[in-house]
Amino acid sequence: MSDRKRVFSGIQPTGNIHLGNYLGAVKNWVAAQDEKENYFCIVDLHSLTLPQDPQELRFQTRSLGAMLLAAGIDPRKSTLFIQSHVTAHAEACWLLNCVTPLGWLQRMTQFKDKSARQESVLTGLLDYPVLMAGDILLYDAHEVPVGDDQKQHVELARDIAQRFNSLFGEEFFVVPEPKIPAVGARVMGLDDPTVKMSKSYAHIRGHAVRLLDEPAEIMRSFKRAVTDSGREIIFSDDPEKAGVNNLLGIYKAITGKPEAAVLADFAHARGYGDLKKGVAEVVIDMLAPIRQRYDQLMQDPAELDSLLAVGAGQAAAVAMPKLARMKEAMGLVLPPSPAGG
Ligand code: ATP
Ligand code: LTN
What we know:
Blueprint: E1 6-11, H1 19-31, E2 37-42, H2 44-47, H3 54-70, E3 78-82, H4 88-97, H5 102-106, H6 109-116, H7 123-138, E4 143-145, H8 151-168, E5 177-179, H9 215-223, H10 242-255, H11 259-265, H12 272-298, H13 301-330
Parallel strand pairs: 1-2, 2-3, 4-5
The structure holds adenosine-5'-triphosphate and L-tryptophanamide.
C-alpha cells in the first residue's frame, strides 16, 4: 500500500449523468487525481435499489464508464471499475448489515424521500447506505468526494466503521471523511430551483442539463430556467432568488471565478435573458470536448470493457483481502487457500 491517502467515490449508472453530478462530484475527482490514490466506482448494485430495465441498465453502465473517461478520469492515475465486478462489495454489505442497527437506516433522509415516492419499497433501498459504507470501508478510504446530498450517508459509514472498530478491533477500518466541494455542491433543478438537480427527474423537460444534451437543447433548458419576477443579478440565500443564485453558482463553478468577477461579467446584462444565455454558453463550451471523447469511446466497446476489467482487477486486489480480514475478525472460518495460493 502506498503512503498516499486513499479516495473512494461512486456514481450510479441510472439515468443520464447531469451537470449536478459533474460539478458536485466528477469534476473534483478529475481535478484531484494526481494527489491521492483514487478508486472510482460505477455503483450498479446501488441502481438495483429502484426498479430498472435490464437492457437499459447494462447500456447505462457502459455509457457512464465512457462518460467518466471522457470527463477526464485517467486509468493510469485512478482505478475505475464496476461495483458488481468485485464481489467483495455485496459480501461486505452483508457483514456490515450485521453490525448496523435498523434505526440508523430508517433515519436517512434520502430513504425517507425516495421511499415516499414508491408504492412498494424494496429492502435494498433501506440498505443502500450499508452497501455504500462497504464500498468505502473495503478500501480504507480517507476521503469521499461527494455532493452535499451524500454527506449523511458518509457520516453513517463513519458510524458503522467506528462501531465495527469498537467490536472487532480498534483501527480495523479507517474512519472516512466526506469531502464536499466549496462550489457546485448542490446544483438545483432548472425547472424548480428549490429541489436538487437529480437523475431521477432528468427525464423531465427542462429539469436537468444532461452531459449528452445537444447544444441547442442546453440553450433551451437554460432559457426556460425558472427565475423570479425581479431584475437583480445577485448571489443570495433568499428563497425568492434561488433560480438566479443557481445560475450564478453554475457559472462560478465552471469558470472558477470569484463572486465579484462573476457579477462583473453580468454587470451589463439586460435582464435575466442575458444571464441565462451567458451561463448556457459556458456550459456548452465545457461539454463540447467531453461529448466528442465520449462518442469516440462508445465506438469501441471492447476497449472500454477491457479498461473496466483492468480497474476491477486492481480494485479486487485491495478489497478481497480486506473482506477476508473482516470475516476473520467476525469469527467466520476462512476457506483453505487454493493450492499455491
Ligand atoms: P438521484 O438524485 O436520482 O439519487 P443523483 O443525481 O444524486 O441521483 P448519484 O449517482 O446518486 O446521482 O450521485 C452521484 C454524485 O453526484 C454524488 O456524489 C452526488 O452527491 C452528486 N450529486 C448528485 N446530484 C447533485 C446536485 N444536484 N448537485 C451537486 N452534486 C450532486
Ligand atoms: N450513494 C452515492 C453513490 C455511492 C457512493 C459510494 C458515493 C455509492 N457508493 C461510495 C461515495 C462513496 C450517490 O451518489 N447517490
